Amino acid sequence: MPAQQGWGIGIRQSTTLTEEAHKYFPKGIMELHYNHHDQVLTLPEGAVCFATSSFCPVEGFTIGNHILTFQGHPEYTTAYNRHLLMNHAENEPMDVRTAALESFSHLNNMGTEAARWILTHHKKA
User: Fold this and answer.
1) Which of 25, 34, 48, 49 is deepest in the core (most CB within 10 A)?
2) Which pTM was predicted?
3) Burial of 36 (0-12, 13-18, 19+ CB in 10 A)
4) pLDDT for 37
5) Using the 8-state DSSP alphabet, how is residue 43 labeled?
6) Confidence of residue 65 (pLDDT cuts 50, 70, 90)
7) CA count, 13 A, side-chain hemisphere, 92
8) Alpha-carbon distance 46 to 77, whole Å?
9) What are the two backbone dihedrals, phi and then psi, of residue 7, each rounded to the nearest 5 degrees?
C-alpha cells in the first residue's frame, strides 16, 4: 500500500522487536538502505513483526522458519542508492532528497548483518 509518509529513500533506522532480530542487530537498531513508496500495513496470518519505525510500522517480518522479509534493501550499496537518488528523483520533494543524502554520512548500512540472517534463517528448526 502506498505510504502516506511519502518516499522512503536513503539509510533509515528502525527498532528491532524480537529476540531473533537482536541476534543480528544486537543494539536493537537496524539501519538499512531504503527506496520505496509502498509499505506493509497489515501482517499476513502467522507473521511476526521484528522491526518497526515511525515511518514504517512493519520494517520486517518472519513467518516460521521459511519467510524473512525486510522493508529495506540489504543488497543496496550507498553508491547504488545515491545513483537512484541523483538520477530518478526529479519529481520528489527536495527536503526528502536532502535528508536521504545526509543519511549516507551519519547512518551505517547494516546489509551485512541482514544477509547473515537471510543465510541462516532457513536452517532453523
Assistant:
1) 34
2) 0.90
3) middle
4) 84
5) P
6) confident
7) 20
8) 32
9) -75, 125
Beta-bridge mates of residue 29: 15
Q: What are phi and psi of 32, to 5 degrees?
A: -135, 160
C-alpha cell at 6: 511519502
The DSSP bridge partners found for residue 16 are: 51
The three three-digit cell numbers of residue 41, written as one number = 500495513
Asked if residues 40 and 120 have their Cβ atoms less than 8 Å apart, the reply is no
Let me know: does 87 contact 50? Beta carbons within 8 Å: no
pLDDT reading at 124 higher than 60: no
Tell me the β-bridge partners of 8.
36
As beta bridge partners, residue 49 has 61
C-alpha cell at 32: 538499512
Read off the C-alpha cell for 93: 520533494
Please, which residues have CB within 8 angstroms of residue 65's CB and are 6 or more apart in sequence? Answer: 121, 122, 123, 124, 125
